[in-house]
From TrEMBL:
Keywords: Cell membrane, Membrane, Transmembrane, Transmembrane helix. It is found in: Cell membrane. GO terms for cellular component: plasma membrane. It holds the Pfam family EamA. It comes from the Bacteria. It comes from Paenibacillus dendritiformis C454. Signal peptide: none annotated. The chain crosses the membrane at residues 7-28, 34-54, 66-84, 96-115, 122-141, 153-169, 181-201, 213-234, 246-265, 271-291. The keyword tRNA processing does not apply. This is EamA domain-containing protein. Belongs to the EamA transporter family.
């Protein structure tokens, strides 16, 4: 699949994940967070397996794949969702959003440390611009990072755990289809979260006894669309373009979360927020390598082969 098609898929995932912020807040308000998350992740896992059946991608894990998937699920599902649920309950939305915006930078640093990725000034410029855009959006009308709480620490641990998992996913993608990997990670991770919920939330099961159809519709939408399809697509993209490039698109999450809040909750979108989105968009073009690739192809059409490396020469290219 061509890179630009992968980029469009990633933007679609960011739309789903951005809107999922509103959905998650609704769910956490009505259910105990860790218990609800365990059931949501299990629902997502079963959805992934059902989607893989007609694709003929469903199979048992083999050999070392069991160990890799279990470790990745510990970081990507149990660690990330556990710390995120605790963090968002103990910090402001602006602080949490800004810290989550560190994901691409943390993933890039992990890729440099463990995958030998060589970063260009395009990539680094994109990361800086993208993070600046995130800061513009999530700190608008708030005190920003002036008061770091235990919730801030939890959110940082959540995004750090996810960044580590992305490197493991990239390593596994060489032999295991990332979509199948997603199903197994969600499946095993849901059991880990459920075990935690039984200890931390003894009344968690009672909180799941809701009869509101609308609330369960939000639950299913979050589990199937945002978590199952979203993570399948995102992990597939990691296997195609690498962890560092795919993670740049996470910078779009705050913007689509704002759009969701405006459309669903009636909150206004301000000029400052639009300015932040422009920075994010430019950051994606630079950081994802899309602009660099366009310039390379433009120079090749003119017969000039100097100055730009091919995508295959990047340390985090597809199939590495």
């Amino acid at each position: 699949m061509k890179k630009y098609a992968i980029y469009l898929m990633l933007v679609g995932v960011m739309v789903a994940w951005g809107l999922n912020v509103t959905a998650t807040k609704v769910l956490v308000t009505n259910f105990m967070p860790v218990t609800m998350t365990a059931f949501r992740i299990m629902t997502a896992a079963l959805s992934v397996f059902l989607l893989l059946v007609p694709m003929r991608q469903l199979r048992l894990l083999r050999g070392k794949e069991w160990g890799y998937v279990l470790i990745a699920s510990l970081f990507n599902v149990v660690g990330h969702h556990y710390f995120l649920s605790l963090g968002l309950a103990n910090t402001s939305a602006s602080n949490g959003g800004l810290i989550l915006g560190l994901g691409p930078l943390l993933t890039t640093l992990m890729a440099i440390l463990f995958l030998g990725t060589r970063m260009t000034w395009f990539n680094m410029t994109g990361i800086v611009l993208g993070l600046s855009g995130v800061a513009f959006i999530v700190t608008h009308g708030s005190s920003g990072m002036s008061g770091v709480s235990i919730g801030d620490v939890y959110v940082f641990l959540a995004i750090l755990a996810q960044a580590i998992s992305f490197i493991l996913i990239k390593k596994m993608a060489a032999t295991l289809d990332p979509r199948l990997m997603t199903g197994y990670m969600l499946f095993f991770g849901s059991f880990g979260l459920y075990a935690l919920s039984r200890v931390l939330e003894p009344e968690g099961m009672a909180s799941m006894a809701q009869t509101d159809i609308g609330l369960w519709a939000v639950f299913l939408g979050s589990a199937v669309i945002a978590t199952a399809v979203g993570h399948m697509t995102y992990n597939y993209a990691i296997g195609q373009v690498g962890a560092a490039e795919a993670s740049i698109f996470i910078n779009l999450n705050p913007f689509f979360a704002l759009i969701g809040s405006s459309l669903l909750l009636g909150e206004p979108v301000t000029l400052v927020q639009v300015s932040g989105f422009v920075l994010i968009l430019i950051g994606v073009l630079f950081g994802s390598g899309a602009l660099e690739e366009w310039l390379r192809q433009h120079r090749l059409r003119k017969g000039d082969h100097r100055g730009y490396r091919t995508p295959e020469s990047k340390g985090c290219s597809s199939g590495s």
